[in-house]
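Long-time lurker, first post. I've been practising inverse folding by hand and with some scripts of my own, and I keep getting stuck on stretches where the structure tokens seem ambiguous. Below is the full token string for one chain I'm working on. Before anyone asks, I'm not after the true native sequence, just a reasonable design that respects the backbone. If someone could post their per-position residues I'd love to compare against what I wrote down in my notebook.
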């Protein structure tokens, strides 16, 4: 049966585009919703242009009450009945309650070679450490931030003269290859990690 995929984002949505564009033909999944906490997220317009339903749940009115924000997310999600959630640049930390509800069905992409550099500013931290390579990781989401079983990793070299921006661009190009490859496999119930290159 075709799997229904909801994609959560906060920003430009380039990973969302790569996921949506991959779900055609004999792909076992189809996008059912793009959901954002940010009404100004560029990804929303890109989703609409692709004919994917969109919704916004602004986190700000909920203040510190993450559970109420997540209840609102879940209410919207329930209307679209996703089987799989893909976090794609969704920049809100989720509570253990929400994560447990979706555990085993929720993926995230993170711009580092986890377990290195959980959290923010991953590229600057990799360069500051003098790392010879960087990359990205797709993993199942578990209650600890940027943890959970690894489903795929792509590596790129860190080059002399790299800035955080130039390294981020090189990693992002790999994110666009890795995330669709992992989603396709995951939607077929195969959790064997994909290691690129
Ligand atoms: C991507 O680089 C993604 O890995 C990162 O945000 C960017 C979103 O770009 N995610 C995180 O940092 C999550 N901790 P996009 O909106 O163009 O897909």
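-- Answer (accepted) --
I ran through it position by position. Result:
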């Amino acid at each position: 049966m075709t799997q229904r995929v909801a994609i959560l984002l906060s920003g430009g949505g380039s990973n969302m585009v790569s996921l949506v564009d991959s779900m055609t033909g004999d792909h076992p999944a189809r996008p059912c919703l793009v959901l954002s906490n940010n009404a100004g997220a560029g990804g929303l317009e890109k989703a609409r242009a692709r004919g994917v339903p969109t919704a916004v749940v602004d986190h700000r009115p909920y203040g510190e009450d993450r559970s109420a924000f997540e209840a609102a997310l879940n209410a919207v999600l329930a209307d679209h009945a996703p089987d799989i959630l893909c976090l794609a640049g969704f920049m809100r930390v989720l509570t253990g309650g929400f994560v447990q509800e979706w555990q085993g069905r929720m993926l995230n992409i993170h711009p580092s070679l986890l377990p290195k550099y959980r959290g923010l500013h991953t590229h600057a931290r990799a360069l500051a450490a003098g790392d010879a390579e960087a990359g990205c990781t797709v993993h199942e989401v578990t209650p600890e931030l940027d943890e959970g079983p690894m489903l795929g990793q792509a590596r790129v070299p860190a080059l002399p003269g790299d800035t955080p921006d130039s390294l981020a661009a090189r990693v992002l190009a790999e994110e666009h290859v890795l995330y669709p490859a992992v989603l396709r496999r995951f939607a077929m119930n195969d959790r064997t990690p994909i290691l690129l290159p």
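A couple of notes from the structure itself: The first strand starts at residue 3 and ends at 9. DSSP finds six helices and eight strands in the chain. Happy to go over any region you disagree with.
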